[in-house]
Amino acid sequence: MLAGDGVLAPLRESILAAEPLTTRRWLARTRELLQDLDTGRIPLSHDTLDQFPQRRAAEHLRALLVATRLLAPDPHRSLRRLETRVPDLLTSLDLEHRRITTRWVNWKVLPRVRAQHEQRRVDTSARNATRQIEQVVAFLTTLQEAGRHLGETTQHDIDSWFAGHGAIRHVVRPFLSWARQSRQLPQQVELPRAYVGQPVAPMDSEQRWQIARRLVTEDSLDPADRIAAALIVLYAQPLNRVVALTIDDVTITQTGTSLTLGTDALELPEPFATVIRSLPVRRRHGTAENLPTRWLFPGSHAGKHITANALASRLRRSLGIRPRQLRLAASEQLTREIPPAMLSGVLGLHPQTIVRLSAKASGSWANYAADPLST
Question: What would the CATH number be for the domain defined by 205-327?
Fold first, then answer.
């Protein structure tokens, strides 16, 4: 498949070491692309991969190429792909609706995505923007099928749309609000309140400690799930911080093992000190898993960590826990017992968040100054 002296030669060893069945399936889907890249018949670039019709296979290959430094990372690719995809996303709309939606995308959506470059959240922002545009197109398509334009929208149209199944329908609200402000939508039409999701109550403290005891005593648990759950149950860590931990955040000395979550090191007790030293765990035997990684919780794509949503789903399946409920319960207890400045330094929790949680929990530290200098 790949020549020993071809462009893709650095991938050869990992491919040969991977699990045969799924690897052969992936190779079969990308055989021609791999051969053309390996021989130099087509350029090795992000644009080449963007043109490959099988998107998932191309994304898998892209991650491998970036992880092996055969292809330079392109942090602006998600934004460029969104910009080029907009006309295709709007093809089902008539001329008038396409004109209105294009204005909204150019004035409201794309500037918001571009602003995410500084926070390095452009990938997530671009995906969210794509879903939002798709839902706006779906709403306008229902109007077209009813023989109406946006300016002829009735209250029944609005109520029927938002009463439909799925919270994702609410991502249309910003577009409708903009359309009403710009007089594209009838002024008398009322929009529902912005969707804020269902409130989540903290888990009962006894249930939380039952889970904590299980994490301490059950050595048969998956090491990665055990550590991830412990960080949530005991230390109130958000999932997006857990998944981004690397082996560089773990410090092993003769006296113990510590984890860097904030500005100060957190000394881990046993058995978690021993378990975290076993990470990362190779969960599969694909090509990506045969490449070196520094993530404690690697994802399915080479060089990337698992997503927060994927880890949450895995913890629900493997341990039967709901991370958000557990984190709220842990936060309430910690803010009752530990000064905010200490929580900020050791656990990396934002001082304002700590004070807010402490006040909500009626903790004794609710009025404690969050500035470390005051301690």
Answer: 1.10.443.10
